[in-house]
Amino acid sequence: MSLSSPKAPGATAPDQPVQTGFIHSLRALKHRDFAIFWIGAILTNTGKFITTLAVPMVIYQMTGSATMVGLVATFQYVPGVIMGPIGGSLADKLNRRKVIIFAQIGMMLSTFAMFLAWNAGVREPYAILWLVALIAVFNGMTLPGWAAFINDLVPRSDLMSGVTLNSLQGNISKAMGPAIAGAIIASVGVNWAFLCSALSFLFVLTALFLLRTVPISFSSHVQGNILKQNIDAGAYIWLKKGIFVAILLSVLIGLLGNPIYSLTVVLGKDVYGVDAGGVGALSLALGLGAIFSAPLVAGLHDRLKMSQMIGGSVVVYGLGLTVIGLTDSFVVAMVALVAIGVAALGALASINTAIQLMVATHFRGRVLGLRHVVYTLSFPVGGLLTGWLADLHGVQTSILACGIVMIVVPIILYAVPGSVRMVRLNDPHDDQIERLEASRAA
């Protein structure tokens, strides 16, 4: 699987120092299959995010209703939440690569149907929204398997690099996709945006067919129907307190950290008095922080424990929000938003890596699926909570409160004794099934 000479995971030559730094943080790209998959993913996801701008634009064009535009997010998120546990079970029970291929083909055909509908003159908003929901169904199916598949493409010693680079391609895609959509729509029209989005899925499908990696299956240890499988996974998360703490912190970020991405609009208008370009600059600061921090985040994993990396990132996130809650300076806010972008990638990539390092192989897909569900559900809840506080006390007070809580929670998890503690993020891999399989083979 690797282009480099084979070594035991984490092994280093006795006469060579442990490598760190920018180049070493990109080490997952040394592995042929990961590099192919990563390139295909960034091209496809960039195309996929073209519709995040194109769909709201056509819905508003057809209806003139901001409420209908708001419904786009509902049709994008709800089916994914429903499909998350199903996708997790499929990722544990079936060949992950085949599950991803099936789901990507489903998204491609659904997007192509959107192109055909628009090209045929269909201007019914719910026809477009239901196609958005169908795309979300396949997306929810693929996400747990996609996240778990990274573990199949790189050795455990390079997992942090692999997960961080996967997060990086997601952030690049989110930044580039809407920008490309705007250029396409302005020059040749919405129908071409839909077509380009549909065709972009060919990149990752080609990459998946080129891979040599055969995912290791422990499906014989996955028992019962999908409901029972996910109940078992929920019980497993509660038993493995390190995984529980990781998911708890991801929910904290979703509830109190994620709303800043939408509140930049309110900040720009009500606090800093900037125009649309200024609001765009605030959003760009978040994206740039995430993009440029990826090598730093991957490199720090070689020097810090997971509890330090995640705890420190969440605290920095909270400090950034606190600064924004207190400052009236547009420039200071920009700097704080860059720091938040850095912290967001550091926290979420490290949380995903910590879960993958700790979880038993036969639970990986379902645990990641359930984590996706609760994390995604925290978005609308956090948005409603922070919006309510902003209406009552002002947007800066709302953001300040979120920042303080995000600083305090990790400190409590460090200081308070018990089983739910930050140090549990350093728990070792649950390798009971691997050892059982090895003993059977012997």
UniProtKB/TrEMBL annotation:
The lineage of its organism: Bacteria, Bacillati, Actinomycetota, Actinomycetes, Micrococcales. Keywords: Cell membrane, Membrane, Transmembrane, Transmembrane helix, Transport. The chain crosses the membrane at residues 35-60, 66-87, 99-121, 127-154, 175-195, 243-264, 276-297, 309-326, 332-351, 372-390, 396-416. Its main location: membrane. Residues 33-421 form the Major facilitator superfamily (MFS) profile domain. It is a multi-pass membrane protein. Pfam families: MFS_3. InterPro entries: MFS_dom, MFS_trans_sf, TM_effector. Signal peptide: none annotated. It is found in: Cell membrane. This is MFS transporter. Coiled coil: none annotated.
